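Please review this one:
***
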Amino acid sequence: MGMGTKLIHPGNEVDETTGAVSAPIYQSVIFAQKDLDTVGQWEYTRSGNPTRATLEETVAILEGGKYGFAFASGMAAIMAAFCLFSAGDHILVARDIYGGTFRLVTRLLPRFGFEIELIDTIDLENVRRAIRPETRGLYLETPSNPLLKVTDLRAVTALAHEHDIITIADNTLMTPYLQRPLELGVDAVVHSATKYLSGHSDCLAGVIVTGSQHLASEIRFVQNSIGAVLAPHECWLIMRGIKTLKVRMEQQQNTAGRIAEWLSTRPEIGAVYYPALQNHHGRSLHLSQAGGAGGVLSFRLADEESAHRFIDGLHLPAIGSSLGAVESIVTLPSTMSHGSLTGEMRQTLGISRDLVRLSIGLEDFDDLRDDLEQALNGI
């Protein structure tokens, strides 16, 4: 079955009780027991809810895993994934990561005794050299946000497994429609479902998927213990968004590719970062492990002032820190999505104040290009 069909027909799309083709929203905290000694399948929504269970099963099927877990935000899901580890564990984290994840691993996790080491995972030898006897985890993001750097998922997970290291990959930018890290050897996948899975800028959500029964047992314990679960109505919103993921992603990446090529010809633009471009470092590797380049691209203008004037001159894209929605969204990563990074880290990674990130929406190409052009002309 093709992924486009599977998005609509994952196998659990029809409610067995009523025949409803839209999952019922079980807006209930408790589920009454028949008697004091008989506990049914559902008891308390923090521990489990039928609507959430349908979403969790759906994302597991789409990612090629067996177990799915839905959380109240992408960061809640990422935190739950890091709860697989304990104080004293050494965890390798790709240094090219979302700013919220950077804040979590550098400012919060060390309080609990985690030893975090940020490394460049683009070079496999960097990973090999960083591994210690106490290394227990490797957290990846590919392509990275916002410079779209590419990590070899097959190679790096194979290396990690030689040392019994748990691998976790953030697949938010690609979605299971374009990339399925579990099939490439990764142990657990996380998403900010707020982005492409939802697709409409109206719902905070996060998910984790794994094929490991052991990891699933641990994540389920963490989910129930912490309680940052996704509410039933939000679960329904994510499932509704998933059904249109193919058509949205196909249109968005088609427009993104054309915009990236067009920007590459503009004299105001210093560099364009998009995995489908012929000169993008890691292009062949990316296309060997993903079915497309996605809908996000970044580019540099002459300086900070030019970037500010360009962004403020746009009419169609919303200025915001999110991505993956039906409307285009423009971001200055250095002060917005990655503002929590230290100045030194931003400089090291190349996230300077002339760098603009653009998440392509569903606007017509001509209209979006014309808006970008008038903003460039106004610099």
Observations:
- The mean pLDDT is 96.
- The domain at 3-243 is CATH 3.40.640.10 (Aspartate Aminotransferase; domain 2).
- The first strand starts at residue 67 and ends at 71.
- The radius of gyration is 21 Å.
